[in-house]
């Protein structure tokens, strides 16, 4: 992937089957950058989520190609304690070279707006408690902690569920 430059344009669109492998690779790269090392199993856990997609949006840079994506899976696809009717924002990633440009926030807004337009009243996500950048973004955007922290099943690190009411977004 080329390095995105500040003068390029970002286009947001629905994800398609042809994007799956590129999104999985981006997810693995973003996780590697976040964690400082690659973790076996990250791609294998991510790939099946595309098969239960409720909403999937990709961000493309006019000069660099795909630089981010967000994927929400159907209600019931997350953890036992998740709200039963809430889609799960299971994957939200921005390429390491494109971070810091607001793409994560834009993707999150696009996902939540689309979920609201589809009639969902809440969404849930799970975040590593020590991923302070993500936690700050979610809290700034109206997400609130749900339940007690838990251990991430693959990484064995403390994680937290967050929930967002969407009813105020549906009128947009």
Please characterize this protein's 3D structure.
Residues 10-161 form the N-acetyltransferase domain. GO terms for molecular function: acyltransferase activity, transferring groups other than amino-acyl groups. This is GNAT family N-acetyltransferase. InterPro entries: Acyl_CoA_acyltransferase (IPR016181), Bact_Acetyltransf (IPR050832), GNAT_dom (IPR000182). With 172 residues, the chain is of the alpha+beta class. The chain is built from 4 helices and 7 strands, in the order βααβββαβαββ. It has a 7-stranded mixed beta sheet, sandwiched between helices. The longest helix is centred in the first third of the chain and has 16 residues, at 20-35. It is globular.
Question: Which features does this protein show?
Answer:
31% strand; 172 residues; single chain; 7 strands; disordered N terminus; Aminopeptidase; 4 helices; alpha+beta
CATH fold label: Aminopeptidase
Main sheet specs:
7 strands, mixed
Q: Report the C-alpha radius of gyration, rounded.
A: 15 Å
What is the oligomer described by this structure? single chain
Alpha-carbon distance between the termini? 34 Å
Q: What do the pLDDT scores average to?
A: 90
Summed up, the helix count is 4
For this structure, what is the CATH homologous superfamily?
Answer: Gcn5-related N-acetyltransferase (GNAT)
> What is the approximate shape?
globular
Total E-strand runs: 7
Fraction in helix:
25-40%
Which spans of ≥5 residues are poorly predicted at pLDDT below 50?
Answer: 1-5
Strand adjacency order, main sheet: 1-2-3-4-5-7-6
